[in-house]
Design brief:
With 369 residues, the chain is an alpha+beta fold. 46% of the residues lie in helices and 21% in strands. It is built from twelve helices and eleven strands. Strands 4, 6, 7, 9, 10 and 11 form a six-stranded antiparallel β-sheet that branches. The chain has a three-stranded parallel β-sheet with strand order 1-2-3. Helix 8 packs parallel to helix 10, helix 8 runs antiparallel to helix 12 and helix 10 packs antiparallel against helix 12.
Length: 369
């Protein structure tokens, strides 16, 4: 890879291994340094239940590649074909997003999570996200946590609530039953009218740059930057609408649970490698309890099925049903790992650790395509 004369825009390495021997730290450091110099992702495939996924997993994560656990040799060909097909369908490379807060006095970006690496500015007004490669039809979901600072509006409302002293003319008009308005009151009247209107408040703007391998050109800015806005309802709106808006969206809940499962499985695998089996089992059980509680809460929002079992669902119910299915799949995977860890800890290192390593990537990349 380092000595090749021609370099394609899209390049990668496929590594198939069934080795059970663990690589020493000095050897792994040399391999990672050379892999970084090659500037190509390593897509590793470990087949057989006796192989050691630690080195394969480390190389794939270090080079932004993928790790795939193949339990049967006859499934290896289809896994390789899927990986090569994914490399052939790359539509953009080196994609970078820039998030800029429009109104810096009210919104601050606290954290960006969901897979790609990101850098949040110290003032919380700018975020740079390194997305990397994007394939045709692929969707990468990121969570951007924004903090609202409405102290200025709070002080303004308190100041507006203070009644000023009426003049003699105003008191005379009031005694006659007339509502006199002075010139200074026009601003308060306008603010009251604005408070009863539905408003769209801008939060932040998203722009980006990428490299198109098909056209062999760089795009420094998007043709139409995306502007994220938040809808503000009037204060005297329907109480039912306000109660429903306080509940988290099922898409956000699903993505949070996927990231939580990926993080907790990774921590459990690290504890297993250190032979701290009780702590790993505790993490798995606690995560299962959280998943089960969230699954029950999300399932309660679904309407009961009809008598004939058929129902035409709207878009919100379809997203809720998709969230329920993803949470059930995550719970099943974690139950498999927990049972294997509880039955035989010695067999877990050789039989289920590779499955857990793949589920970490599956939770991060779930619903991306």
């Amino acid at each position: 890879m380092l000595q090749r004369k021609s370099r394609n825009p899209v390049a990668g390495m496929l590594l198939v291994s069934d080795a059970a021997d663990s690589t020493r730290r000095a050897q792994m450091d040399l391999v990672l340094a050379r892999a970084e110099a090659a500037n190509a992702p390593i897509h590793s495939f470990g087949y057989g239940r006796s192989h050691d996924p630690a080195s394969l997993w480390l190389m794939s994560n270090h080079t932004n590649g993928t790790y795939t656990f193949v339990s049967d040799w006859y499934d290896l060909r289809s896994c390789l074909a899927g990986c090569i097909g994914g490399m052939m369908s790359i539509g953009s490379m080196n994609m970078k997003l820039h998030l800029k807060v429009i109104d810096g006095n009210h919104f601050l970006i606290c954290k960006a999570s969901g897979g790609p690496s990101s850098i949040v500015a110290s003032d919380g007004h700018n975020v740079d996200v390194d997305v990397g490669k994007m394939r045709y039809g692929e969707r990468k979901e990121m969570l951007i946590e924004v903090e609202l600072d409405n102290t200025d509006a709070f002080h303004q409302n308190n100041t507006r609530g203070v009644r000023r002293t009426m003049s003699a003319t105003e008191r005379f008009n009031q005694s006659l039953g007339l509502d006199a308005e002075s010139i200074e009151d026009l601003a308060d009247l306008t603010d009251g009218m604005m408070d009863r209107m539905i408003d769209e408040v801008p939060v932040f703007e998203i722009d980006g740059s990428f490299y198109d391998p098909a056209a062999a050109k760089h795009v420094s800015r998007l043709a139409h930057p995306v502007l994220l806005t938040v809808t503000l309802l009037p204060a005297g709106g329907n109480s039912t609408v306000r109660q429903q808006s306080g509940r988290s969206d099922t898409v956000i809940v699903r993505r949070r649970m996927e990231l939580l499962a990926s993080d907790m499985i990774t921590r459990a695998l690290v504890l297993v490698s250190r032979k701290n089996y009780p702590a790993a089992q505790k993490i798995m059980n606690e995560t299962k309890r959280i998943m089960h509680t969230v699954l029950q809460q999300v399932s309660q929002s679904l309407p009961p099925p009809s008598s004939n079992g058929t129902m035409v669902r709207n878009r919100k119910e379809q997203l809720t049903l998709a969230c329920v299915r993803v949470l059930q799949a995550i719970l099943q995977d974690m139950q498999t790992l927990s049972d294997a860890l509880e039955e035989n800890v010695d067999l877990f290192a050789h039989d289920q650790r590779n499955f857990g390593a793949q589920q970490v990537s599956s939770s991060l990349l779930r619903h991306n395509a």
